[in-house]
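Continuing the series of single-chain predictions for the mutant panel. This is the parent chain; the variants come on the following pages.
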Amino acid sequence: MKNKFSKHWKASKQPRKQRKYLANLPLHLKKKLMSVNLSKDLRKKYGKRNLTLKKGDTVKVMRGKFKGKRGKVTEVKLKTSKAIVEGMQVKKQDGSKADVKLRPSNLQIIELNLEDKKRLKTTEKAHSDKKENKENAS
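Parent structure:
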């Protein structure tokens, strides 16, 4: 099998090919896999169910050893599709501490980092579009 990404790949039932496709994804497409669910109040506010994770977002861990803990995202690693959250560390054998890399599927955004103007516009636009659609339907 070829070892590079193909945009013509449609689908396969074979898990091996699905894993290969995800492993060879270019970073601009891997970014889409870094979407995280929003908390209920943010869903109501922005009219969206999930958003792409960004550095500075405050998240809550939903699964795993750190379930229920909250912290700020310090780093988003697109290459490995993982996020590093402030305060989530494990003690190594030699006594030093190491950051835990979490999957975005196990996180929930509680507070958005709105320093990026484009991100603010897209969230507001989506919310206003949904409101208009509801008004037109009734």
